[in-house]
Amino acid sequence: MTPKQLEESTAYLEAKGFENPEIGIVLGTGLGKLANQIEEAIEAHYNHIPFFPLATVEFHSGKLIYGTLEGKKVVVMQGRFHLYEGYDFVDITYPIRVMHKLGIKKLFISNAAGAINLDFKKGDLMLIEDHINLQGGSPLAFKGVSQYGERFTDMAEPYDLDMRKELSAIAEKENIVLRKGVYASVVGPQLETKAEYRMLKIIGADAVGMSTVPEVIVANHLKLPIVAVSVLTDECDPENLEPVNVQEIIEVAGKAEPKMVKLFKELIKKL
């Protein structure tokens, strides 16, 4: 990644009509339907955007969508990049830097995750209050990072307090169960062993997934306020562990998705 590459990616999107978006949204596994509600949508497939990585997972379709949602200009990432696909941290977070360069002022992130906290149930939503990075690296650990922002980025409060409060109030008003907790990000793609689930519980994780944290680190590097919600697609009880069913995970995410869409849309209205 170079400043010139970022400029070329941004210029390509601006030429397509991606003008001054206010909010960036990253959609997780099985959570693509929000994109259908964007008015006057303009699409840019990742493989057409200069220097963009390509999505390799079949259920991540791979495009940026620009348009209007609840009266605000948004740019939505439908399909994200993961470490387990063979990308490096700079690739994974490149779209966040491009959205920031386009002009977004806030970032919304969603993901599908497993519930470590057994008080949380399959199909619940969890507002991420903090995270644990277990991916073994950082998207800021490269030469020349200082030309993009402060190298030693502060992570005391990585998720924006005001947006979290607002989202909690919306959930209460709409009668949506919104858990709150700590998200642990692992490499994957294999699911965790019983011993790993026990370890995650001991270190304070409420949910586990394979994404989100690199994007959040870069957004903090860019001083971009973030709100993030996990859709809990399975219950990770080491004492009663069922073999994983990816199709079921995607189905659970799909059923819970309207609640997440409602929360995000109501929050966009209020910003």
From TrEMBL:
Keyword presence, Glycosyltransferase: yes
Alphabetical GO biological process terms: nucleoside metabolic process
Gene Ontology MF: a single term: purine-nucleoside phosphorylase activity
Keyword terms, alphabetized: Glycosyltransferase, Transferase
Pathway linked to the protein: Purine metabolism; purine nucleoside salvage
Domain (Nucleoside phosphorylase) ranges: 22-269
SUPFAM superfamilies recorded: Purine and uridine phosphorylases
A single Gene Ontology CC term: cytoplasm
Coiled coil: none
Keyword Cytoplasm listed: no
Cited InterPro entries: Nucleoside_phosphorylase_d (IPR000845), Nucleoside_phosphorylase_sf (IPR035994), Pur_Nuc_Pase_Ino/Guo-sp (IPR011270), Purine_phosphorylase (IPR011268)
Record EC number: 2.4.2.1
Superkingdom field: Bacteria
Family: Belongs to the PNP/MTAP phosphorylase family.
PANTHER family linked to this entry: METHYLTHIOADENOSINE/PURINE NUCLEOSIDE PHOSPHORYLASE, PURINE NUCLEOSIDE PHOSPHORYLASE-RELATED
Biological role stated in the UniProt entry: The purine nucleoside phosphorylases catalyze the phosphorolytic breakdown of the N-glycosidic bond in the beta-(deoxy)ribonucleoside molecules, with the formation of the corresponding free purine bases and pentose-1-phosphate.
Name the record gives this protein: Purine nucleoside phosphorylase
Organism of this sequence: Euzebyella marina
Lineage, broadest ranks: Bacteria, Pseudomonadati, Bacteroidota, Flavobacteriia, Flavobacteriales
